Each structure stands twice: as structure tokens, then as C-alpha cells.
């Protein structure tokens, strides 16, 4: 990331190098997480900002601070205590927090912290909006700055979080966590982010009966009043922060697709559960198709589990087929078979289908009359190249199913994606055994490499963190008016291009998350170029040359490094 020091971009308003203007001094400065350096303040800044006597005399480097912080982190007795320690550090110093956070990015303990939000509460972070007080939304948002102060908003209503369900007001922590990832993985400046929770009540009886619960203690509001609340938030956010990108997170199945469909043609917005999951899974699938030499316009895909994630993946696959071939979206959707609790989705299910499921419901007469529509029957009938699991049904991909699949295709592409690991539809080692080492595998959680027949296979993890931050970075830097389907396809292509399997068929289908900063630059570049080509970009002077574009992007990515402070009025 050496381009961050490149003087040719020093004129950019969002350049992330050089001194920071600071109007604080003394104790107020030490209480500002944005400007505080703690023991790392150099002598000249201690004098200029009246810090003498407020700090021990020894001046430390950031690396020395990280070493001390890691010792303190490691001494905490359990994962939840470690999570609480990191939250406390974030409140003290953003730079130290992010420098420390990268090795322990997005730990599973975030779910524990969300469930215990009201009990662990110390200091509010983010914007709390509630459905009883809709007239004050604009006033609430005004606490976080004016038009040019916010680039990236993550908003959640807390109905379906991390596999732990309805968490009400605790959803603010998932908004915070997603923004942490955008900073770590794509350099979105933390000072220009806004986490938001839309508190509509909760149907979680445990929370409703908890005297310490901090959210609205009432059943979750639905219907017209709910839609009005979401719409009032979106309109107020656009008035207050007209260029901000809105990221919807962990909305419930009845609402997630509906809300995305309503707003994606009006504002720059994104739903990670639908589009992010779809993009990263599609990138793995595209790499697998390259290895197996199957053409996109011929691929047959079965999606097992057709909730928000499953239909999001199906939608992204259909969009890409339509974009990359001469097929319409409707024709492309016919290459995908979706299964949910009732079995194969067919049109006769009518109003029981969600908005996301409707495009993938098959004509009933396509299916042999009287034949079962369970997963094994569908595999026998369809002979899929690709089997994707988002069902949360552990071991659903049985030996019979996988062996049946392997009868008809040379390289079965199997993605058990349900989280956490205990809910995976199959274990990678079993998939290699049942296919004599021919399977191409990606999972939703990290797995150790598998050895079979004397060969070691690296298991790709479909981690959204390799994808959604780069998409957001591209949208923010280009100030795109919308996030188009072509922009998402460009993101998929950029992620696929980094696949180790393209060079070595035994390599992972996706790159390692450790390379995520460079991956985010690739994705942002693809998104920005597409935004310019489609006439959606609103920023002048975006470089047309690929190398200069990468430098331009990197110069505007925030780094966890202390910058010199200069006095400001």
C-alpha cells in the first residue's frame, strides 16, 4: 500500500496521508478515540497539545503498544471477555484497535456479545432509531454530522442475526462489526461511518422478559407501519447524507429481499446477506467451472435452503449468466433449482413463496407426476454440476446424494455453506472420499486442508469479508448513484481472478482472507470502472489507466497508523 504516501493525489479531499487537524488538547484529546495516541504521542505533540503530566514519560511505538495490548487481550479468561476488552480499546484509540484487530477479525464471539448487549452495555455507539419516535429520525441523524461527514451506513433491524435470530436493539453491534470489517479490509475511514439500528421491538421472549433489556419491550411491529419506518429512515438518511452508501444487514426473510428490491433502483444500497453472499459464492463457483471446464450457459445448479442467502446466491448466478451470455434473466433462472422446507420450489406453492423465491419456482408440469421432490430425487433428475447448501441442516448432503451427483458429472462442485461449522451440510473430507478426490469444495467456515490419495486439498472459505468491503469502497470512492448488476458481476470477476485454483487445480477456489486489502482494491477498481462506464459515477477525475486507478484507490484507504497532529481552531 505504498501508494498511500503518493504526493500526486495529495489534492484529493479524502487523502489518507499527511497531518490531521485537531482542535482538542489536554484531557479532551486523550478521551478522543479518533486522535488519541496514548503513550505514543511524540514530544512535540505533548508540548503543543498540553499533554505533559498526563502521560508517562517513555514514548512508545505503535508496535510496542500492540504487543502490550495483545498480552492484555490474551490474559482475558474467555472469548466474551476478550470481545469486551476489544470494545473498550476501540473507545480509547481507533488506530490501536484496528492495528490489533486484524489478526482476530470478526470472531464468533460477536454473536455472544450481541446476545448479551444489554448486560454488557457501557457506552453507546451508533444511532438508535425506534419505531415509536419516527418524527425525530432527522434530528437523531443530525448528531452524526452534515452532508459530507458520512460515507458508509450499515443499518439492521435485528430480526435475523448470525444464526442466533431476533436480537432487537442488540443489532447495533452487528452494524458496528460490519463497519469494522469495511475499515480492516477496505480502508473505509472509521470517522466517516455510521452504524444504525432500527428498533421495531422484538419477538425474542428472553429479551422481552429481561429487566435489563435496553430496546423497546414490545412485540416486533410489522406491516404498513414497519414499511413506513424503513422508508422514513432511508429518506432522512439521504437528506442528511446525500452521497452515503447504505448497507442493509440481517433483516428478516420476509423483508430483506423486498426492501432491497424497493430501494436498489433509487439509491446506492446493498444487502450483504443477499448480494455479498451471492457474489463470494459465485466467484468460487466460477473458479470451479474453470477447473471443471463447464460453460456458464450450460451449468446446472441446485440450491438447498432457499432463504435470504440461498435465493441471494441463486439471484447472483442468474444475473451473471444473463450478463455474460445472450440469455434473459428468466431463461438464466431456469438453470437453477431451489429447494426449501416444502421441497423443490414450484409455482403451485403460490403465496407461500417469498419474493426472493418466486423467480426460481419451477412449473409443476416440469416434474414427473408423483415423483418425490426431496434433494436426492432432484439430484437424480437434474444431474447438477453444482450443489450449494444454505439450509442449516447438518449432514444433509449424504453419501448417497454426493455419489449420485458424481455419477453424472466429472467434477462435482459442492459448497456446504451453512454456519457455524456444526450446521454444515457435509464435511470436506467426506466429500473427497465420496467422489474419489474429484469434488471441488468451498465452505462457509474455515476448514483445515484435506489429504486424500496422497494429495493435499486446500478448502476455500466463502467469507463475505473478501467481497462486500471492496464493493463498498468502489461505491464510496466513485460516489455512484446506484449499485448495478454489472458492478456486482465486475466484483465477482475481480475476486475470481485471485483464485489459486486458476493456476493449480488442487488450490483453493478463493483467495485467503489475509490478502483482503489487495483483493478489495481489485474489486473496488472493477466496481468504479463499471460505474464510470454506466454513467453512474459522480466523482470527477477518476483515472482511466488501471495502474493509476489502483494508486488513486489506495491513496484514499485508511491505514491503522498514527498521523502527525496539527493545531486547528
Q: Would you report the number of β strands?
A: 16
Number of domains: 3
> Could you tell me the mean pLDDT?
91
CATH topology descriptor of the largest domain: Rossmann fold
Shape: globular
What is the rounded Rg? Answer: 24 Å
Give the DSSP E fraction (strand runs of 2 or more residues). Answer: 5-15%
Q: What is the CATH architecture term of the largest domain?
A: 3-Layer(aba) Sandwich
Q: CATH H-level name of the largest domain... which superfamily?
A: NAD(P)-binding Rossmann-like Domain
InterPro entries: Aminoacid_DH-like_N_sf, Malic_enzyme_CS, Malic_N_dom, Malic_N_dom_sf, Malic_NAD-bd, Malic_OxRdtase, NAD(P)-bd_dom_sf
Active site: 106 (proton donor), 178 (proton acceptor)
Domain Malic enzyme NAD-binding: 274-532
Family: Belongs to the malic enzymes family.
Amino acid at each position: 500500500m505504498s501508494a498511500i504516501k503518493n504526493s500526486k493525489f495529495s489534492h484529493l479531499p479524502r487523502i489518507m496521508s499527511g497531518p490531521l487537524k485537531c482542535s482538542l488538547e489536554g484531557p479532551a484529546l486523550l478521551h478522543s478515540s479518533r486522535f488519541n495516541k496514548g503513550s505514543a504521542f511524540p514530544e512535540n505533540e505533548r508540548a503543543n497539545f498540553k499533554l505533559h503530566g498526563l502521560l508517562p514519560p517513555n514514548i512508545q511505538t505503535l508496535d510496542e503498544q500492540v504487543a502490550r495490548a495483545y498480552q492484555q487481550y490474551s490474559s482475558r479468561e474467555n472469548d466474551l471477555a476478550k470481545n469486551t476488552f476489544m470494545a473498550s480499546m476501540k473507545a480509547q484509540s481507533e488506530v490501536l484497535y484496528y492495528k490489533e484487530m486484524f489478526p482476530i477479525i470478526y470472531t464468533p464471539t460477536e454473536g455472544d456479545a450481541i446476545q448479551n448487549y444489554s448486560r454488557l452495555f457501557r457506552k453507546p455507539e451508533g444511532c438508535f432509531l425506534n419505531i415509536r419516535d419516527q418524527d425525530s429520525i432527522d434530528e437523531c441523524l443530525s448528531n452524526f454530522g452534515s452532508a459530507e461527514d458520512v460515507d458508509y451506513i450499515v443499518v439492521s433491524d435485528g430480526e435475523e442475526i448470525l444464526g442466533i435470530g431476533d436480537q432487537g436493539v442488540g443489532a447495533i453491534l452487528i452494524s458496528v462489526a460490519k463497519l469494522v470489517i469495511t475499515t480492516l479490509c477496505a480502508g473505509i475511514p472509521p470517522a466517516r461511518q455510521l452504524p444504525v439500528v432500527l428498533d421495531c421491538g422484538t419477538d425474542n421472549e428472553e429479551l422481552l422478559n429481561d429487566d435489563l433489556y435496553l430496546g423497546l419491550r414490545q412485540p416486533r411491529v410489522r406491516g404498513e407501519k414497519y414499511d413506513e419506518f424503513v422508508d422514513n429512515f432511508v429518506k432522512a438518511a439521504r437528506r442528511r447524507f446525500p452521497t452515503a452508501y447504505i448497507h442493509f444487514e440481517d433483516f428478516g426473510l420476509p423483508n430483506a429481499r423486498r426492501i432491497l428490491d424497493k430501494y436498489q433502483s433509487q439509491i446506492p444500497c446493498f444487502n450483504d446477506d443477499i448480494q455479498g453472499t451471492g457474489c463470494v459464492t459465485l466467484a468460487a463457483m466460477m473458479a470451479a467451472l474453470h477447473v471443471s471446464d463447464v460453460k456458464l450457459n450450460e451449468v446446472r445448479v441446485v440450491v438447498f435452503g432457499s432463504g435470504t442467502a440461498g435465493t441471494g446466491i441463486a439471484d447472483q448466478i442468474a444475473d451473471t449468466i444473463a450478463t455474460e451470455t445472450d440469455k434473459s434473466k428468466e431463461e438464466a433462472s431456469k438453470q437453477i433449482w431451489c429447494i426449501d422446507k416444502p421441497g423443490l420450489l414450484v409455482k403451485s406453492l403460490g403465496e407461500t413463496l417469498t419474493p426472493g423465491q418466486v423467480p426460481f419456482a419451477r412449473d409443476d408440469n416440469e416434474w414427473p407426476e408423483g415423483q418425490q421432490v426431496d434433494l436426492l430425487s432432484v439430484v437424480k433428475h437434474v444431474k447438477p454440476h453444482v450443489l450449494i447448501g444454505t439450509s442449516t441442516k447438518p449432514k444433509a448432503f449424504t453419501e448417497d446424494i454426493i455419489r449420485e451427483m458424481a455419477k453424472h458429472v466429472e467434477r462435482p462442485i459442492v459448497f456446504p455453506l451453512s454456519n457455524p461449522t456444526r450446521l454444515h451440510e457435509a464435511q470436506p473430507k467426506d466429500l473427497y472420499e465420496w467422489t474419489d478426490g474429484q469434488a471441488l469444495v468451498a465452505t462457509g467456515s474455515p476448514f483445515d486442508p484435506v489429504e486424500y490419495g496422497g494429495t493435499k486439498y486446500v478448502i476455500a472459505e466463502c467469507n463475505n469479508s473478501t467481497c462486500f468491503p471492496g464493493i463498498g469502497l468502489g461505491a464510496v470512492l466513485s460516489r455512484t448513484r446506484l449499485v448495478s448488476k454489472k458492478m456486482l458481476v465486475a466484483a465477482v470477476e475481480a475476486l475470481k481472478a485471485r483464485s489459486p485454483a486458476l493456476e493449480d487445480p488442487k488450490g483453493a477456489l478463493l483467495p485467503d482472507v489475509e490478502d483482503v486489502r489487495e483483493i478489495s482494491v481489485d474489486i473496488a477498481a472493477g466496481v468504479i470502472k463499471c460505474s464510470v462506464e454506466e454513467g453512474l459515477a459522480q466523482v470527477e477525475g477518476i483515472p482511466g489507466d488501471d495502474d493509476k486507478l489502483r494508486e488513486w484507490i489506495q491513496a484514499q484507504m485508511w491505514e491503522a497508523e498514527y498521523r502527525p497532529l496539527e493545531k486547528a481552531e
